[in-house]
Amino acid sequence: MAIINAYKMDGLGNDFVIIDRRKNSINLTKEKIIELGNRTNIGFDQIIFIEKEKGNSFPITIFNSDGGEISACGNGSRCVAYLLGKKLNTKEVKLKTDNRLLNAKIVGDFLVELEIGKPLLSFEDIPLSKKINPADITIMIDNKTFAGGFCVNVGNPHIIFFVKNCFEHNLNTIGPKIENHALFPEKTNVTFAQVVDEKNITVNVWERGAGLTKACGTAACATAVAAFKSRLVNDEVDIKFKEGFLNIKIDKTDNIFMTGPVSEVKKIDFEIS
């Protein structure tokens, strides 16, 4: 048996186990990740590995609680940036996923800004399984039509439905069915969004590979992009979750900036065989 030293953090209740493997090679099987991610065990939405520094950036590897590897996690990236910033005594940290370079800044007490880059809006880049308008998607689930879906990739694929009440639909039932719909070859994150006014949106999110979640950073970014492109909000908007909000800004070149709180860093240990 080996003892693994790790950290537990969250952003608005969206929680993570973070393992620093810059010095030690630590590998977990898919089965072990699923076991640890179960809420009867440690429990998390994602587990994130910090890899050896390359140049001036830190690669990160991310797995959902279902054991599947993913390309992006906004709140998790903000937590990792905060952890590294405190370890290295710096306010600016660069992270590298398999498809994006992320610039993070600690801008206040437990407050981190993350620049995630530009959204991808073509059907090939999202991706969708057929050539249709990504800004006007209609899906049939259990003989019920969900129309007006807006698809976007912000490091991972999302579909957003703008509705009058984002909590009227049971995401535990329809979330996994939309996530696994044939239109999405890489599956998708699912958000039901309620525009309050031009500066505020309330959301309810089903996270691909993790399920119903208290918050999702990339969903906040995707929702802001979809609402801005649909002329429903300004280029800066607060995305409200159950435990707080994320501020999303879209600059003139379409770069997305996400700012929000992170928790304190909690050290944890667990055993692997």
Descriptive key words:
4 helices; 273 residues; Diaminopimelate Epimerase, Chain A, domain 1; 18-stranded mixed β-sheet
Give a quick summary of the entry.
This protein is an alpha+beta fold and 273 residues long. It is built from 4 helices and 18 strands.
Terminal CA distance reads 4 Å
CATH architecture of the largest domain: Roll
Measured on Cα atoms, how large is the radius of gyration? 18 Å
Classify the beta-strand content into a percent band: 35-45%
Q: Outline, from the CA principal axes?
A: globular
CATH superfamily of the largest domain: Diaminopimelate Epimerase, Chain A, domain 1
**Top CATH class of the largest domain:** Alpha Beta
Q: What report would you give on this structure?
A:
- About 40% of the residues are buried.
- The model has no long low-confidence stretch (mean pLDDT about 95).
- With about 270 residues, this protein is α+β, with helices and mostly antiparallel strands.
- The protein has 2 domains: about 130 residues, Diaminopimelate Epimerase, Chain A, domain 1 (Roll); about 120 residues, Roll (Diaminopimelate Epimerase, Chain A, domain 1).
- The chain is built from 4 helices and 18 strands.
- The N and C termini lie close together (about 5 Å).
